[in-house]
Amino acid sequence: MEVIQSFTIDHTHLKPGIYVSREDKGFTTFDLRITEPNREPAVAAAAMHSLEHLMATWFRNSEAKDDVVYVGPMGCLTGMYVIMLGGYTVEQMRQLTMRCLQWVLEQAEVPATTPETCGNCLLHDLPMCQWEARRYLGRLRDDFHSEYTKLRVVLDDGRVFADA
Ligand SMILES: [Zn+2]
Q: What is the CATH number of the domain that holds 79?
C-alpha cells in the first residue's frame, strides 16, 4: 500500500486557512482547514454536520454551482473538502467561502433535516455551527494561510514519497 497524499502533509504546523491538496483529472480539491489539528478542539460532529448541509446548499446555489463536485467534512472533523471542476485559485475559493460563511451566519435553520432528507437528522447544532463559521470567517479575513508543509515520507521499500 502506498502512503496517500493527504498523510504526507505535516499536520503539526498546519494553520486554519484554505489549501489546494490535489489538482488532477480536471478537478481541484480544496482543504478548508477550520481548526488547528491536534492543538484546538475539533469541530463537534453536530456542528460540522450542520455546516456541511449549509455550505453544500450555498455552494450548489452559487454562481459556481455548475463547477461544484463535492462539499463534505474531513473525517478528523477539523475541516471541509470542496472539490471543484476546473482550475480555481485559492483566492477565488477564499472569496467564495467567505461569502458562504457570511450566509451561514444569517440562517435561522439548517436545510434538509428531516428523516427523509438526512441520514442522521438529530445530529445538528446550528448555534455551534455558526460559532465555528464566525471564527473561521475571521481567520480567512485576518489571518489567512494557504501553504502546506510537506512531510518527507519514506515508504517500506525505501522509495521517498514527497508528493503525488
Ligand atoms: Zn445530513
A: 3.30.1360.80
State pTM to two decimals: 0.88
Instruction: Compute the distance from residue 118 Cα to the ligand 1 centre, in Å.
Output: 4
72: CA distance to ligand 1 center in Å? 10
Report CA(75)–ligand 1 centroid distance (Å). Answer: 15
- pLDDT, tens digit, for every residue of 105-114? 999 999 999 9
How far away, in angstroms, is 117 Cα from ligand 1 center? Answer: 7
* Domains in the chain, number: 1
Domain coverage including residue 135: 5-161
Residue carrying the nine cell digits 483566492: 91
